[in-house]
Amino acid sequence: QADLQFSPGGYDPEEEITPEADATSYNNFYEFGTGKADPAAKSADFNPRPWSIMVDGLVNKPAEFDLDALMALGLEERIYRMRCVEAWSMVIPWIGVSLAGLLDRVEPLGSAKYVAFETIVRPDEMPGQRGLFQPLNWPYVEGLRLDEARHPLTILSMGMYGKTLPNQNGAPVRLVTPWKYGFKGIKSIVRITLTEDQPASTWNRLAPGEYGFYANVNPAVDHPRWSQATENRIGGGGFFGSNDRPTLPFNGYGDEVAGLYAGMDLKANF
Amino acid sequence: MPLPALPKRFHAASIWALYGLGLLPAVWTFYLGATGQLIGNPVKIFEHLLGEWALRFLILTLAISPLRDLAGINWLRYRRALGLLAFYYVAMHFLAYMVLDKRLALGVIVEDIYKRWFITIGMAAFVALVPLALTSNRWSIHRLGTGWGKLHRLIYPIAAAGALHFCLAVKVIGPEQLIYAGLVTLLLGWRLVRPRYMAWRRSRREIKTGFARTQAQAE
């Protein structure tokens, strides 16, 4: 990974940052395998450079952005909590650009209501995408409402811990929406499309009763497999280094984002 | 091909060696976890390792009698150790969940068992294993007579529950879950086919010996 130049982004929960070794070795990235250690172990063949993202759909100026063009939008460091639907969490110093800044460049049409994202499909470089057993339908897809996508907290991350993203964390560019469960943070993005209708999202399509489109962190709505009331904060130091803590609504970003969902029943729209 | 038979004087020692080797993964991983050498989520890594070894020992326990039926290898002397190892791993799996993962928050544990199917099923399998472990000794075998065999047939639903627990615990069923579930299905399926297979083999043997007898008479 290369070092990155960035400015402070003004977000810091002032909680202990997860050790880099943990954040880069305990990952969900099914394109490289379903085990937590698979992404770090099996992503060495993946080439995140050169890269470009096509931004199209209901926009005035569809365009392709390469990494330099994306970084030119202004790299900032954002230290965010990250909460996985599996009831564990980390604190990660991301480096990225505001998604709103990118959307401004392509000038969304008035009819655009949603933003759809798509991950690359490269079976030759991604062992989870080849072979007899395919856990998910590729490409991995995700979506946000346009106002969620434009929210100041939403970034396209191109780095963490001062450097470019490691392959296992979604190199070269991934989505980060810190008030939502981690699976919304689609990795290795190749396409962003503005749409009028709510786009599909991979986990929601697989198990709609378990994973909603919104996937806002919500301690009051349990997942059938995990209580969401508490979370295990990953940290170094073995069996007793991590700690359990109560999960906060919107992962602690309620002041910033609760307004997006005013009047919505968050138990129905989970 | 016949395996070289282990001389009888080593039988007891080989069983103790199996206990020692069998417990090694748990001891070693506990050491790694306690000394901060498991990166990521050490508690889950340890918990899942214990669960997987429990399944492996359950499968090995179930494999002993088909191995004898089909390959003529008699490792019956290891079956108790394998079964008990499965029990020890299930018990450690539960303890790791209760103590390291849930930190003895009994309310949360009770809610888990009550609300989450995969935990309900896993818990039921653990409870069902207890009487089997308690009666895995010579005294109980004599004491219970034919009841012992009936009681120990509980191992079949327990193994099925263990495999199901593993499949339901993950977000998508992967090759690992399929392998374990497949092996358990095969081994349990064998129990259904076995009576017919044994009858067929017996009748074939009778035909052969009958044939030999008529031949001998003719000569």
Automatic annotation (TrEMBL), chain B:
<keyword id="KW-1003">Cell membrane</keyword>
<keyword id="KW-0249">Electron transport</keyword>
<keyword id="KW-0813">Transport</keyword>
<dbReference type="Pfam" id="PF01794">
    <property type="entry name" value="Ferric_reduct"/>
</dbReference>
<keyword id="KW-0479">Metal-binding</keyword>
<keyword id="KW-0349">Heme</keyword>
<feature type="transmembrane region" description="Helical">
    <location>
        <begin position="116"/>
        <end position="134"/>
    </location>
</feature>
<keyword id="KW-0408">Iron</keyword>
<feature type="transmembrane region" description="Helical">
    <location>
        <begin position="82"/>
        <end position="100"/>
    </location>
</feature>
<feature type="domain" description="Ferric oxidoreductase">
    <location>
        <begin position="51"/>
        <end position="162"/>
    </location>
</feature>
<dbReference type="InterPro" id="IPR022837">
    <property type="entry name" value="MsrQ-like"/>
</dbReference>
<feature type="transmembrane region" description="Helical">
    <location>
        <begin position="178"/>
        <end position="194"/>
    </location>
</feature>
<keyword id="KW-0812">Transmembrane</keyword>
<keyword id="KW-0288">FMN</keyword>
<feature type="transmembrane region" description="Helical">
    <location>
        <begin position="53"/>
        <end position="70"/>
    </location>
</feature>
<keyword id="KW-0472">Membrane</keyword>
<feature type="transmembrane region" description="Helical">
    <location>
        <begin position="12"/>
        <end position="33"/>
    </location>
</feature>
<protein>
    <recommendedName>
        <fullName>Protein-methionine-sulfoxide reductase heme-binding subunit MsrQ</fullName>
    </recommendedName>
</protein>
<comment type="similarity">
    <text>Belongs to the MsrQ family.</text>
</comment>
<keyword id="KW-0285">Flavoprotein</keyword>
<dbReference type="InterPro" id="IPR013130">
    <property type="entry name" value="Fe3_Rdtase_TM_dom"/>
</dbReference>
<feature type="transmembrane region" description="Helical">
    <location>
        <begin position="154"/>
        <end position="172"/>
    </location>
</feature>
<keyword id="KW-1133">Transmembrane helix</keyword>
<comment type="subunit">
    <text>Heterodimer of a catalytic subunit (MsrP) and a heme-binding subunit (MsrQ).</text>
</comment>
<comment type="function">
    <text>Part of the MsrPQ system that repairs oxidized periplasmic proteins containing methionine sulfoxide residues (Met-O), using respiratory chain electrons. Thus protects these proteins from oxidative-stress damage caused by reactive species of oxygen and chlorine generated by the host defense mechanisms. MsrPQ is essential for the maintenance of envelope integrity under bleach stress, rescuing a wide series of structurally unrelated periplasmic proteins from methionine oxidation.</text>
</comment>
